[in-house]
Amino acid sequence: MTTASGRKDQYNEMAAEYSSYEDLPVARLEAELIRTALGDCTGLKILDLGAGSGSYARMAVEAGSWQVDVVDISDAMMQVGREWEPNSPGSSRIRWLLGDVTKPLADQGVGLLPAGGYDIAIANWLFDHAYTVDDLRGMWANIAASLRPGGKFIGIRAVAPGIFSDHNCKVGKYGCLRTDIRRIPDGIECRATLLTNPPFSVGVTLMEDSYNRTDAIARKLGMTDFRSMPEPQTRVVQADLGF
């Protein structure tokens, strides 16, 4: 089983290559969907969990957010974002906070706003790195604790049946190729290769509660009104309806 230390090491190692991820088709689709879901963020306080280099934190600032707190287990990933900051208008509204989002952030001295202090919580691909159900529960618990009543959560995650499709497992047409898929307790484990130049790989795990969109853990924590963003309306999909 991958430990928190091992998890941190693999993210540190891929920090430099990850900056080219945004050029992939899957990343362009993701960016369109997140931008639409964020909408007008004027004056809002936003928490971005597992945010790495903070590309969506910067997007939230551009949309008007008053403050975005980025939390990630890898300081190397966040350093990439810090180095981009001088060229990003409003980047002073981003705080970079080191923490393990599978554990209660309130107990780690991370420096977040008080419980219920955020209008929006973001977590993109975070759930695909929950190595156990307890990890997934910890992620959702941090999300639920962070949001004010009526707050909004936005997330990107791998879901069935797409994760088992040929374009993901054999071809990698849209920029990601999944290999070495195997069953583990309550989910699956695989290798995800992002077809950047040069490509790089990362080990990922997906719990059934997440990839089947059951979301029993989140619902028990009071999360409601789950919705999927309409991919067919995006420019990326309009240019390739097979996507």
TrEMBL record:
Record SUPFAM superfamilies: S-adenosyl-L-methionine-dependent methyltransferases
Entry superkingdom: Eukaryota
InterPro entries in the record: Methyltransf_25, SAM-dependent_MTases_sf
Domain Methyltransferase: 46-151
Name the UniProt record assigns to this protein: Methyltransferase domain-containing protein
